[in-house]
Amino acid sequence: MKALVFAHFSKTDSLSPGVLRAIETYARHVDVIAFVSTSTLPTDAHDSLSRVCKQIIVRNNIGYDFMSWKIGLEAIRPYDHFQEIILTNDSIIGPLADPTSLFERLSADPRDICGLTLSWEFGRHIQSYFVRYKSGPLRSRAFDAFWNDIAPNSEKQEIIQRYEVALTAFMEKHGHTVGALYEPRRDFSTPQRLSIWAANLRLNTLGSALRSLRRTLQTPSLNPTLYLWRETLKADLPFVKKELVRDNPTDQNLSLLFNELQMRFGIDATIVRHLARQ
């Protein structure tokens, strides 16, 4: 059996159509879904979710996604009958294509814990937005110890350092293999960074181009979901980070991203922008 724990948040206390579609899609690939939200869900949203989710939990908005995952994991105990558990959230747009092959690749990957992307930012770690755990770690004391240590925290950066970044090293220290379907190199040379920058250059916006150049050259490690979106799509990962489309913190040429999404998935830029705001 397979389970999935979904961490949800909405500023408007609503369930977006994009999230509901994602949940309905995941339900075709797993046996149990626990949906954990820090937002008050309207009755119609609760009814829609109840058709595909075994557990629907609304909790106080503290602790970000790691607290939601902890609560969701506790709700589906014991883990003995699960071969896999996936932890994911609503920070991504997608899946933009049928994820059957993605789930198959995750199941076939021999590593105990497998994410979609690996980042060297703040230290080597798998990014937490979509992670698959096999039965080995699920039955280990290390897994219980890590999740039992999760505590309410309002400091997002501290949560990233203490939980997202630390998870990889902690589980590897206790004998588990950890990796991702897409793993970029740790260091990019200056010519490689210039190539990445040039591939996303917006010639009509000099200020943005210079800001992007400085970030691309000076950032110690390039977050793959924000700098290497083209490479992640080529790796057949059918997701885009909402932050990239909504905020564009690295000054990417989003028109190129939209063209790529249109070509690969037939999805219009207007729809992508709308989904990023949900």
How is the topology of this model organized?
Elements: E1 2-8, H1 17-26, E2 32-37, H2 43-50, E3 55-58, H3 64-75, E4 84-89, E5 92-93, H4 100-108, E6 113-119, E7 125-126, E8 130-134, H5 135-138, H6 141-148, H7 156-173, E9 178-182, H8 190-198, H9 206-218, H10 224-227, H11 229-234, E10 240-241, H12 242-246, H13 254-265, H14 269-277
Parallel strand pairs: 1-2, 1-4, 2-3, 6-9
Antiparallel strand pairs: 4-8, 5-10, 6-7, 6-8
Helix pairs in contact: 8-9
Overview of the molecule:
The protein has helices at 17-26, 43-50, 64-75, 100-108, 135-138, 141-148, 156-173, 190-198, 206-218, 224-227, 229-234, 242-246, 254-265, 269-277; strands at residues 2-8, 32-37, 55-58, 84-89, 92-93, 113-119, 125-126, 130-134, 178-182, 240-241. It is built from 14 helices and 10 strands. The chain is of the alpha/beta class and 278 residues long. The mean pLDDT is 93. The strands form 2 sheets. Strands 1, 2, 3, 4, 6, 7, 8 and 9 form an 8-stranded mixed beta sheet that branches. A two-stranded antiparallel ribbon has the order 5-10. The longest helix is centred in the middle third of the chain and has 18 residues, at 156-173. It has 2 domains: 2-182, Spore Coat Polysaccharide Biosynthesis Protein SpsA, Chain A, CATH 3.90.550.10; 190-277, no CATH class.
